[in-house]
Amino acid sequence: MLERNQGSLTNNTVIAALARVKTLSIVRQLDSNDKSGQLTPSQNPLDLSTADLNNMNSSISELPMHQLFLAGAHLRFSSFAARDLTAANFQGAYLIEAQFGQAILTNSTFSIAILAIANFLKAYLKNSDFSRATITEADFSQTNIDYADFSQCYGNLFKCIRCVGVYTSFINAHLPHAIFTNQMC
């Protein structure tokens, strides 16, 4: 049935939309440990874009979360610390006090996302896209930002102490009060 309906349980768009709304409604009612259990690797990942996943703690699971799709999701006090999130999509997401310390975020996108008081300490951000993101009080210290794109991002109190990065783009970025020390960008 999934093959007949292009990965959906039904070819009726109204039923599919209602099922998605019900799924997101149920996810909102889960506690932080239950929410993280809903994110499992699969060929057809669950689209949780625009979902409210506040207080989610994905750090309790050790499974990689490649190609995680959370575009537009609201993630307040959520933790992805020390997780492999290769090719994750957080485009347009609201990441308030989110923890990404020591996470692997190669080829991930945070473009046009809102990042406030976010922790990326010692994360691996090679070839990640932060273009046009709003970044306030975020710590990118000791990260690898090779080939990362921070072009046209706006931020305040952006901290990048001892970052390592080649071909990293900050073209037209507006980062007043940014701290860059001992980096190789």
Count of structural domains: 2
The CATH superfamily label of the largest domain reads E3 ubiquitin-protein ligase SopA
Overall mean pLDDT: 80
Give the low-pLDDT segments.
none
Beta percentage is: 5-15%
Description:
- With 185 residues, the protein is low in regular secondary structure.
- It has two domains: 1-30, no CATH class; 32-185, E3 ubiquitin-protein ligase SopA (Pectate Lyase C-like), CATH 2.160.20.
- The chain is 12% helix and 11% strand.
- It is built from two helices and seven strands.
- It has helices at 13-29, 32-37, and strands spanning 74-76, 94-96, 114-116, 134-136, 154-156, 159-161, 179-181.
- The strands form two sheets. It has a five-stranded parallel beta sheet, with no helix packed on it. A two-stranded parallel ribbon has the order 6-7.
- InterPro entries: 5peptide_repeat (IPR001646), Pentapeptide-BTB/POZ_domain (IPR051082).
- It comes from Rotaria magnacalcarata.
- This is Pentapeptide repeat-containing protein.
Could you give the topology of this structure?
Layout: H1 13-29, H2 32-37, E1 74-76, E2 94-96, E3 114-116, E4 134-136, E5 154-156, E6 159-161, E7 179-181
Parallel strand pairs: 1-2, 2-3, 3-4, 4-5, 6-7
In short:
With 185 residues, the chain is low in regular secondary structure.
Descriptors:
185 residues; little secondary structure; Pectate Lyase C-like; 2 domains; 5-stranded parallel β-sheet; two-stranded parallel sheet; 7 strands; Pentapeptide-BTB/POZ_domain; 5peptide_repeat; Pentapeptide repeat-containing protein
